[in-house]
Design brief:
By secondary structure, this protein is mostly beta strands. 15% of the residues lie in helices and 43% in strands. The protein has one domain: Jelly Rolls (Sandwich). The strands form three sheets. The chain has a six-stranded antiparallel β-sheet with strand order 1-2-3-10-5-8. The longest helix has 10 residues, at 130-139. 32% of the residues are buried.
């Protein structure tokens, strides 16, 4: 049974993120009894993950700071602080902080489990390139299929 809980600002497990910056796990499988994962992403300027799809999770991105664009399937979406975007499981997607300052996203996935990808990335010895990230991703139901969004990608 899941118990009620609260996580204060600054609390949670903070790990290096594959895109640079860091990710803080605010709620995980154990705390939510598998229902969701909540992540606080600090995203460097112009950074974002490669195109990928989640084979088992839906994903919602709530922009806490900055301006982001999201490629979701054939759509290019934009959101700034206070806005959000959603990507259902199976839909290839990527996001990018388009600003010149660090941005921040609150990411919620259902069901939970995506935190294992970030934990395994953080446990890797030495630098992890795109092939290593794809391997860690595949072990956690993520399929990386393309590069990150670039400056030349249309908005």
């Amino acid at each position: 049974m899941t118990s009620a809980f609260a996580v204060a600002a600054g609390e949670g497990l903070t790990l290096p993120a594959p895109i640079g910056g860091e990710v803080t796990i605010k709620a995980d499988t154990r705390r939510t009894n598998g229902s969701m994962t909540v992540l606080d992403f600090h995203v460097p300027p112009k950074a974002g993950p490669g195109l990928h799809s989640h084979l088992r999770e839906d994903e919602l991105w709530f922009v806490l700071a900055g301006e982001f664009r999201f490629k979701a399937g054939d759509d290019m979406l934009s959101a700034s602080a206070g806005g959000l975007a959603f990507g259902p499981r199976g839909l290839p997607h990527a996001f990018q902080n388009v600003g010149d300052e660090p941005g921040r996203l609150l990411v919620i996935t259902t069901p939970s489990g995506i935190e294992r990808f970030f934990e395994q990335y953080a446990e890797s010895a030495g630098p992890v390139g795109p092939a290593g990230i794809a391997e860690i991703g595949w072990a956690n139901w993520l399929d990386f299929t393309g590069p990150p969004l670039g400056q030349s990608d249309p908005i």
